[in-house]
Amino acid sequence: MTIREPVPQGPLKTPFYPRVAEIDTVNQWHEWKGFSSPDALYCEDLEYFAIRNGTGVFDLSPMTKYRVTGPDALDYLNRLVTRDMAKVGVGRVAYAVWCDDQGQVIDDGTIFHLREGEYRICCQERHFAWFQAATIGFDVDIVHETEEIAGLAVQGPTSYSVLKTMGVEGLEELKPFGLIHVDFQGTEMMVSRTGFTADLGYELWIEPGKALDLWDALFEAGKEFKIRAIGTHALELARIEACYLAPYAEFLPCDETVRTGRSRSPLELGLEWLVDFKKPNFNGRRALAEEKRKGSKWQLVKLDIEGNKTADSAYIFSNSKARGEAIGFITSAAWSPVCKQNIALGTVKAPHGKPGDTVWVEIYYQREMHWNREMAQATVVDKPFWFPPRRGATPPGPY
Amino acid sequence: MTDKYDAIVVGAGHNGLVCSALLAKAGKKVLVLEANQQVGGAAITREFADGYQVSACAHLLYQLQPEVRKDLKLTARLVSKDMTTIALGDDGNHIRLKPESVEGVSDEDAEQYRIFRKRMTRFSNLLRKLFNKTPPRLGSKDFKDLMSLGQLGLDVRMLGKAEMEAFLRLIFMNIHDEVTERFESPLLKGAISLDAVLGTHLGPRSPNTMMTYLHRMAGDNGRTGSPAGGMGSVSNELAHAARAAGATIRTGMPVKRIIIENGRATGVETEAGERFDSLMVISNADPKTTLMKLIGAKHAETGFARRVSHLRAKGNAAKLHLALDGLPAIEGLSKKDYAERLVIAPDEHYVERAFNPAKYGESSPNPVVEITFPSFRDETLAPTGKHVMSAVVQYAPYALKGGWNDEAKANFLKVIIDTLAKYVPDIEQRITATELLTPADIEREFHMTGGHWHHAELSLDQFLFVRPVNGAAQYRLPIDGVYLCGAGTHPGGGVSGAAGRNAARAILSREKAA
């Protein structure tokens, strides 16, 4: 008789789940690539302000992770993503996008150059089939290691002080997009100065067995620094302030689209700085070169909108009367508490959407059951809404 | 010191020769590099036993395009033309198939055959029109692509409502359903089934074998010939035409790689380490060999490399050459019948059963055979009074379980001789030498992936707009400066020269447009 391993039922639990569940009072969870992940834990607003005024701790263990090794690892990645990975040295992290042959974005993520010839791709979606197909012709190994690494985002002005108090060494020299390997209670822990909040912040990566010890040590060290666990809603607000892209919001992974024209190229997402045409070959190069020559169809915009009604799902018009066809639509919107601005990300038809342009957003909002409509003027801005100097300061200041 | 050429053609197969001849005629400085000592690729004549010569791979000419003949002023003298296909019955009652008629069957079958062939002629003419054109790009808004697609639609529509419906129904069908609906003679059903599956990894019940039948017929409406001096003479004539036009052909020069620098082709390097420069490299090799071995998949984009790696190219046809000390006796055949094409495919089920084991990596215990005696009309091929038999034998799967070792080959040879002996009782006594080429041998000797005649399986998903794959169906790879001109491209294999000609024309018209 064979005894089968029990098959887990329902969403998986991350290594930090026992601690996160303990704090949770609102019981709002969603599924993230098979794992339970909290929307919020006690109060979205307080969680958000932890990120901007103290330290917010987010369990990002469900992030998809692939290890890339082998003699051709660098060549492989260079053909996979649009930017030049040769410029990303050991101990550095690169934000990158990868496209299909048509130059349409499959996903974005961060690539950690862990050690010589050893990389980790970290992203929201799963891409094993594509990454595997991309190995044809390369001597490289791809291992899916999502469940082998527990991850915590530690973000906010006091995050440096928290980690220092916890005993992490070498943070003084760690620049944004740098990573170091440190000792945590006899286990190797990777610390990267990365995040999804455009604030001073770090991400900690450790084997799942040490996850709870890490959590406990972190919260112990953070007592004096306003440390709080946070859910995805708070993170999402910080993300919009930072103008970072989210799949299924600013773009759809192109392999998930059915209708033509529903995917986006890096150029259409304002990521031209990530596309290095000096590389002789990378996925999408030919199509993107053609797009650059002919012009893009869409343009991502950051909008500063008048008033205080959030512009969720709103149409964007070139005029205040909503005459003619809409030129685009909002993909993410929020009232930014820290900027005191009504902000949004959107996609508009080129050549609309140049920085400084004025557009009009058709906002629908509900007041005591009744719907109201407002045409709000919006300005296309160039820079992210939130990008404080402390994010880049090395060494970071002790708040 | 390296030489600089306008174009380098990798491989002097017949398509490579056609392509280089046409480019040279257009004033290009062309270099052709052939791995083997002889030009012609799989269309060569060579000695396989002392004094016995044979067309080593392809052995019948049924597709050479009039356009190619005309452009290159080929004569391609045939010793047998309009060959009759004689489907052998084991009792000496054979039937004879010609393009328009069949003898030896019931009146009803004869009439049905006439109707069938008339319709097939109409459809294969439609296909033949496409043979000599670059397939349009799908999804393109380019005027030429749209016109070409429109023309195809119009041609189909011009068949008339009933025939258009029949065409659209039949093209996706299998040959088994069609022959069983129409005919009663087992030999007739077997012979037509065989024509649909020769050279493919398909059985008569496999999808789209109606299309493969039409493809075979499209070359010259089913008319089959045997060139004087074997297939090698056709290739030699092509090589002569290429040289006369100014192309340089060098044999015994296997190309190791196509050099890609800064994302584009800049030349080739031979196995011997010699380098030749050209901003245009045209590969006569099959698409998989071209991308995976010669270029390196890393120089392509992922989606494209994946598509090419998924190309199906597993040959299933073996080639048997017998040196005979005299013509063997076959009951029911007259002397002159030895100049014709003989087939062993006694009924449609026999053909399917022969295919069955091939699905599981086993060779057929009762194979189907296409037999010719090329020396019968061409005494240059064998010593006086002696003869050569050249046969295509199916099924011999490329990926044979356990591999094509000596034992497997000896076993399969015995199976073939036993099969032949049922129809040709004295065959064994006549044999003085044998040569059996399995797909593994064909791959090694002729450098074709999977030993596949067509370089890539002929099927609707690898046909026309998507042959070899989407993104390379216009003879141009998505890597600057690299082109394809072999059987892996539209319209596929068979000694037609169409792929080589289309490639040359696509290259020249592209240059004009630039």
Number of strands of chain B: 21
CATH class category name of the largest domain in chain B:
Alpha Beta
**Which chain pair shows the most residues in contact?**
A-B, 20 and 21 residues
Main sheet summary of chain B: 8 strands, mixed
Corresponding CATH superfamily of the largest domain in chain B: FAD/NAD(P)-binding domain
Principal-axes shape call of chain A? globular
CATH topology of the largest domain in chain A: Gyrase A, domain 2
Give the SSE string of chain A: HEEHEEHEEEHEEHEEEHEHHEEEEEE
How many distinct helices of chain A?
A: 8
User: And the CATH topology of the largest domain in chain B?
Assistant: FAD/NAD(P)-binding domain
CATH homologous superfamily (4th level) name of the largest domain in chain A? Probable tRNA modification gtpase trme, domain 1
Task: Classify the secondary structure makeup of chain B into a structural class.
Answer: alpha/beta
The total count of helices of chain B amounts to 16
CATH class of the largest domain in chain A: Alpha Beta
Number of strands of chain A: 19
**Helicity range of the residues of chain A?**
10-25%
Shape of chain B: globular
The residue ranges of chain B in which pLDDT falls below 50 over 5 or more consecutive positions are none
Q: Helical content of chain B, roughly?
A: 25-40%
Oligomer: heterodimer
Strand order of the largest sheet of chain B: 9-8-7-17-18-19-16-20
